[in-house]
Amino acid sequence: MSDDTLIRVEGLTRWYGERLAVDGVGFELRRGQVLGFLGPNGAGKSTTMQMITGNLAPSAGRVEISGIDLLERPREAKARLGYLPETPPLYRELTVDEYLTHCARLRRLPRRRIREAVARARERCGLADVGRRLIGNLSKGYRQRVGIAQAILHEPDVVILDEPTVGLDPIQIIEIRRLIGELGRDHSVILSTHILAEVQSICTHVQIIRDGRLVYAAAMAELGERAAARTLRVRLRRPPAEQELAALPGVASVEPLGPDRLRLVFADGAAETAAEALVERAAAGGWGLVELVPERKSLEEVFVELTTGDAAEPGRAAA
Ligand SMILES: Nc1ncnc2c1ncn2[C@@H]1O[C@H](COP(=O)(O)OP(=O)(O)OP(=O)(O)O)[C@@H](O)[C@H]1O
């Protein structure tokens, strides 16, 4: 394992009676990487999260946190792991400082380090001014920060966040996303979410699970390429014969949309060549090119394609 691989998961599998909920999931994540873990309802996200946080025993497979086997040495492995569950167990009647101090004790941080660890986690999570406020009186956004502060209190290598922005208002969402982005610099972060925009804005890697199996795992940029325009909507005042358009370099097919409108479908990776050829030929041939619109797929469309159709690919390691 390379030094910077902070979490390694191999062949993780979980049966619930006769039901196979997670089927051979494997991936690695390095320091500085933020992994978005996506999937439709019932795909196996929570089951996977619970297994990699040591809260549910796998039927098969291994999890290593910073090279330590989670099943063989759970206490040591968990000491390097921070977890924000979907509903963090906050005590509303405690102040932020009391709660974080309590968490630090549960984490068995040495007494002399507790005060400093609490102050640092508070600082990193934008809680510097609310140490003496009762958790029950804080806004939901601030409570979520407290949840994140308890997850990073012991400076774990791996931070796992389950739907961290659910129920927050747009400003709180932006702030929490910024915080997660910052955490990503020093830790490996795994983020379970339903929100594709969230993955797009903060994750470096993305992984999609469907029916318990990884169907897609790639760097974020690769998912962006999948969404890149593969078609151009074109309006030509004096269109040439369809065959002439179909013969342009990089064009796979032509779909007529009306008397002067059509859609050009490109061959893989040929979008720019085809667009350039079209513009040159249109100018030279007097085709009267008045509209040229690249049609990008939305991330939602790519997600649906990956989680429903036959387009799914076998999982590859995210790192
Ligand atoms: N305790 C359980 N007993 C039996 N089946 C379960 C149990 N927990 C989950 N399942 C089943 O395992 C599958 C995966 O569930 P899981 O909760 O991991 O999915 P998920 O991706 O987290 O879904 P959601 O996004 O809805 O939370 C589902 O079919 C679910 O019904």
Biggest sheet strand order reads: 6-7-8-3-9-10
The assigned CATH architecture of the largest domain is 3-Layer(aba) Sandwich
Q: Name the overall outline.
A: elongated
> Would you tell me which CATH topology of the largest domain applies?
Rossmann fold
What is the highest CATH level, the class of the largest domain? Alpha Beta
For the record, the count of structural domains works out to 2
GO molecular function, one term: ATP hydrolysis activity
Pfam families: ABC_tran (PF00005)
InterPro entries: AAA+_ATPase, ABC_transporter-like_ATP-bd, P-loop_NTPase
Family: Belongs to the ABC transporter superfamily.
What does this structure look like?
One of its GO terms (molecular function) is ATP binding. This is ABC-2 type transport system ATP-binding protein. Keywords: ATP-binding, Nucleotide-binding, Transport. The protein folds into 2 domains: 5-225, Rossmann fold (3-Layer(aba) Sandwich); 229-295, Alpha-Beta Plaits. The chain has a 6-stranded mixed β-sheet with strand order 6-7-8-3-9-10, with helices on both faces. Strands 2-1-4-5 form a 4-stranded antiparallel β-sheet. By secondary structure, it is of the alpha/beta class. The longest helix has 17 residues, at 170-186. It has helices at residues 45-52, 74-78, 96-106, 111-124, 140-152, 170-186, 196-202, 220-227, 242-246, 271-285, 299-307; strands at residues 5-16, 19-30, 34-38, 60-65, 68-69, 81-84, 158-162, 188-192, 205-210, 213-219, 231-236, 251-256, 261-266, 289-295. The protein has 11 helices and 14 strands. Residues 311-319 have low confidence and may be disordered. Bound molecules: adenosine-5'-triphosphate.
